Amino acid sequence: MASESTYATIAALLVTSSLPFYLYGAKIMIDAETVTWNVLVRHLSYIFPGLVLNTTPVVTWMMPRLLQQLNGLSALHAILGLQAYAMLVFALTGIVRIFQAKHQANLYRDPDPDVDLDDLHENMGAWRGRLRVGVFGYVLFWFGAWLLGLYRFATGYVFGPGL
Q1: CA pair distance 24, 49, nearest whole angstrom
Q2: Could you list the pLDDT tens digit for every one of the 163 residues in the chain?
Q3: The dihedral of CA 121, 133, 42, 55: what is its sign?
Q4: How many other CB atoms are there within 10 angstroms of residue 133's CB atom?
Q5: Which long-range contacts (CB under 8 A, 24 or more apart) does 147-152 make?
Q6: Calpha distance 159→80 (Å, rounded)
Q7: How many whole angstroms separate alpha carbon 60 and alpha carbon 141?
Q8: What is the largest CA-CA distance in the chain?
């Protein structure tokens, strides 16, 4: 069986490797003039692997060890991470509704750049707001948890004894 520091290194590398997937997925959406079905699928093809790379070490290594190493920093790290996932769920409550409205209007297969998305449904503005707040919150809390995790990794496994 591998050592604790080996698992910590693998977890840090996996979580860190999710960042380029998130950034490129965001770039796809920012660069798109019109979000077509192909743009959405391409965006998700980068976001989903980033989520898998991030979530796998969280579920398989970090969460089972949380109570064994509970202290202020690990609690803050866990709270930031849980809040990131909560914001992701909040964003999904918006994106699912937006997806349904755009799908019903056939805007993914036949995009019309002149269509005002707010005209598709009376709640579209609220759904888009949920999406924006959720994505921004996820990124903010994920970044905080990531930085704190790197600090804990460095002080616990690189420069000090294992936590």
Answers
A1: 11
A2: 788 889 999 999 999 999 999 999 999 988 988 777 788 889 999 999 999 999 999 999 999 988 888 888 999 999 999 999 999 999 999 989 988 998 888 887 887 777 777 888 899 889 989 989 999 999 999 999 999 999 999 998 888 765 4
A3: negative
A4: 14
A5: 148/73, 148/76, 148/77, 148/80, 149/12, 149/15, 149/77, 150/12, 150/16, 151/73, 152/73, 152/74, 152/77
A6: 24
A7: 20
A8: 60
Structure token digits, residue 149: 């995790």
Q: How far, CA to CA in Å, does 33 sit from each of 8, 59, 111?
A: 41, 37, 11
- Buried b vs exposed e over 79-107: b needs ≥16 C-beta within 10 Å? ebbebbbebbebbbebbebbeebbeeeeb
Tokens linked to 35: 């979000």
Residue 137, both tokens: 């919150």
Q: Alpha-carbon distance 67 to 69, whole Å?
A: 5
What tokens appear for 59 in the block?
Answer: 């579920």
Cα radius of gyration rounded to whole Å, the chain: 19
